[in-house]
Amino acid sequence: MPRALAKVGDRVIAETDKWETVEGNIYFPSSAIKDRSILQDSDLSTFCPWKGHASYWSINVDGQTLENAAWYYKETYDAAKNIEGYVAFYKDKVEIVQE
């Protein structure tokens, strides 16, 4: 069965066999996050006209902080309900692998 991984260095921070792809980004269900303690709330918020307001997390792994490396939509507009509560990662900060 195919799966998607999010990695920082050699550490897998999220893994799932069910994900959504939107605008070229893989959205992981929140249950795919292996260790929520690595996520730090960020003050950053952005707006998408069809998805809604995104909130961000910085990722702290092995003494390294990746600022605003993950985002999620706590509540989405109707057109994006399939990713509500899902998490995506910036590909230039977190390695995304599909197997």
From TrEMBL:
InterPro entries: DUF427, DUF427_sf
Gene3D superfamilies with a match to the protein in the record: Domain of unknown function (DUF427)
Superkingdom of this protein's organism: Eukaryota
Start and end residues of each DUF427 domain: 6-92
Protein name: DUF427-domain-containing protein
Organism listed in the record: Aspergillus lucknowensis
